[in-house]
Design brief:
The complex is a heterodimer of chains A (111) and B (114).
Chain A (H helix, E strand, L loop, with lengths): L4 E3 L2 E5 L4 E6 L6 E7 L6 E6 L5 E4 L2 E5 L5 E6 L8 E9 L4 E4 L3 E6 L1
Parallel strand pairs in A: 2-11
Antiparallel strand pairs in A: 1-3, 3-8, 4-5, 4-9, 6-7, 7-8, 9-10, 9-11
Chain B lengths: L3 E4 L2 E4 L4 E8 L5 E7 L6 E7 L2 E5 L6 E7 L2 E7 L7 E8 L9 E2 L3 E5 L1
Parallel strand pairs in B: 2-11
Antiparallel strand pairs in B: 1-3, 3-8, 4-5, 4-9, 5-6, 7-8, 9-10, 9-11
Classes of the chains: A mainly beta (111), B mainly beta (114).
Amino acid sequence: TQLLEQSPQFLSIQEGENLTVYCNSSSVFSSLQWYRQEPGEGPVLLVTVVTGGEVKKLKRLTFQFGDARKDSSLHITAAQPGDTGLYLCAGGIQGAQKLVFGQGTRLTINP
Amino acid sequence: DTEVTQTPKHLVMGMTNKKSLKCEQHMGHRAMYWYKQKAKKPPELMFVYSYEKLSINESVPSRFSPECPNSSLLNLHLHALQPEDSALYLCASSQVVRWVSEAFFGQGTRLTVV
């Protein structure tokens, strides 16, 4: 069974601070997605990374896929209250057409 | 258009009722998924359809019956559910590629079984 461990599970910081969320596994994934989910809504795709060592930036968010494609990180610079939400990483299993989700990081940015 | 549309948004049903959840996408995706999400938990995969054929059933009880009438539609038929089946049910779609491409999710149906 391929598992993804996300850390931290909860994070509450002040507006303007930086933060990093980690997604780790002992398994290799063919791709890794990051989603953000608001309460009562479906997850919204933020980014997909597929190449080991890949770095993608989305405004103040920076996503990195580990060289061995076993881990990923999400870094937010100068966090804003609008960044509040549940952040989920999900790994793609090659040939199985399914995603494995991490447990999620519940992020709260306080004004 | 990267939209997956789910109906209804909210559903309350009794344990003897029969109801259906509907999902539609027009992105040309040939893989469609049903996920179940309990409060404060990540989505759990239930079913995967690939090219309108059921390819994955994650040991879901038979009171949940999926159906994929065509490449744009996905249904989930519900019968004799239990209160513990109350959850957010999410539909998603993606391209079918050698590696799993990004999945696009609908807004979900909030199901309450009474």
